[in-house]
Design brief:
It contains three helices and nine strands, in the order H-H-E-E-E-E-E-E-E-E-E-H. By secondary structure, the chain is an alpha+beta fold. Strands 1-2-7-6 form a four-stranded antiparallel β-sheet, with no helix packed on it. A three-stranded antiparallel β-sheet has the order 3-4-5, with no helix packed on it.
């Protein structure tokens, strides 16, 4: 089970982002059908070498995405534009969200913010953030009696010279 670091201001920042987007929408002067903002779903997971973020952003062109890292915060901004070819009066229902979005993620100190790969395919934006070499797990070789285990198993005639330890098999 992965442990998540508790951030007491996470909900406050999310609330602030929503209030800011409401004011931004009101000031743009467009109709409410075309400016309703949305928050793309995101999956975040990590392995031994990287942290991966997958954002669902279908219908957004690559040029409308803005990805930045500043002060250990990864931000993803974008905009899904309403197709103006059809008149809004002709629609029976509009359920998809249009407008701009903003997501911010605090990067852990174990990642290297200089090595981020971004791929966009089939409406999914995949961001891979490499971990620092010192944060990656290391294999430690165990030596037995000053010799490596593989070396001590090789010569069988030396076993007679070494004293046998009871219960140490």
């Amino acid at each position: 089970m992965a442990m998540n670091r508790w951030d007491p201001f996470r909900e406050v920042v999310a609330l602030q982002n929503r209030v800011n987007s409401l004011f931004r929408e009101m000031n743009e002067g467009d109709s409410p059908l075309t400016t309703a903002s949305f928050v793309p779903a995101v999956d975040i997971y990590e392995d031994t070498k990287k942290v991966v973020l997958k954002l669902e952003v279908p219908g957004i062109e690559e040029k409308d995405l803005d990805i930045r890292v500043e002060n250990n915060t990864l931000t993803v901004k974008g905009e899904r534009k309403f197709d103006k070819e059809e008149k809004e009066e002709n629609f029976h229902r509009i359920e998809r969200r249009y407008g701009s979005f903003y997501r911010a993620f605090t990067l852990p100190s174990t990642v290297d913010s200089e090595h981020i790969n971004a791929n966009y395919k089939n409406g999914v934006l995949v961001l891979e953030v490499s971990k620092k070499p010192e944060a990656q797990p290391k294999q430690i070789k165990v030596n037995v009696g000053g010799q490596s285990r593989l070396e001590s198993q090789a010569p069988q005639q030396n076993k007679a010279q070494e004293p046998e330890l009871v219960g140490a098999r």
